[in-house]
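Hey,
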Amino acid sequence: MSRKNSTFLIANVGSTSLKYQVLRMPEEVCVAKGRFERIGQEDGIWSHEDQTETLPLPGYGSAIDRMVALLDASDGPLGGLDSLDGVGFKTVIAKGIDGCVELTADVLKRMEAYTLLAPAHNPPYIQAIRAFSERLPSKKMIGLFEPAFHQTMPEYARIYPIPERWRTEHAIRRYGYHGASHRYVAERLPQLMQRPANELRLISCHLGGSSSLCAIQGGKSIDTSMGFSPQSGVFHATRHGDLDPFAVLYVMKEEGLTPDAVIPWLTKQSGLAGISGIASGDCRDIEEAMDNGNADAKLAFDAFCYGVKKQIGAYLAALGGLDGIGFAGGIGERGTRVRAAVCQGLAELGIVLDENANQEANGKETCISTAESPVAIWIVPTNEELIVARACHEFLQVE
């Protein structure tokens, strides 16, 4: 069967941002890319290629209008929307769905059903998908849900020790997230190491405002640190990570709190921000504060790095050894001090960081392990949009 060419606008939606790429497949040519920041504010920022503009962005609709107008212009990068096959989204979670699907009304309802799991992610995605659908009604809307890459996890790694009725009626299990980023690392790291993916044991460390790790064997996910919700696993900028549920139940009972009342505490005032006590959970702000003598900021930094290190140790055991580590995400790619702290003391496990290479990396695709290190350590700047475009292209081939 001949394979059709396709062109997709890929939208990566954040709580106040929208990154996009137009990718021509299967050549994987980037036709255009840009991002909107500070959506919902008067001083919004639109960066397209090498140009930046400050403008009011009251909502996703205004950002999408700007983007569509640019792409529909005859002298624009796409030369009009006729060549566009659809819009692809790095969707997060929907009840009972963890693959690549067309974003129908039923799928959007399933996303709404799991808004409690991803309160910072699902609402803006649903809003953006509906806005794109209104403006581009003839184009397909396709979502690659983040758990897709983790479908290869064995059942014993996915199951929770909870009543069977909870698992069947409410679909509660370990889903895993950051699937597009972990898949990119799983595909790119073997190329960088110049070894076949099917013989490698890898750990992908996606570290940023939201962080997770993934154990990869033979190119497939066998375990990941996030579970039922993106709040779990190693802790995040403002979200709590793994936490004894009875701690939450205790506080709720003692203070008479409802779930709606406690969710902001867990999602916006926990994590790095919660430990440090500073307004921001941005790791750069944490490092600046600890350099200025803030002991709580230093504790937050140490606790975060310890959590990542501990997860690496667990996955080394699960994999039965380790060949490579890939650092991705905002902190993984640019967090020099975090990488150094995570790798410190792991030489006996074959993980030996080259301190000079780590200092000089500056977010670039770089090997940062010593020549003698049994485990290769790489910075792998992730390309989630490319992974979504590949999935959307494959989706069209089997329709």
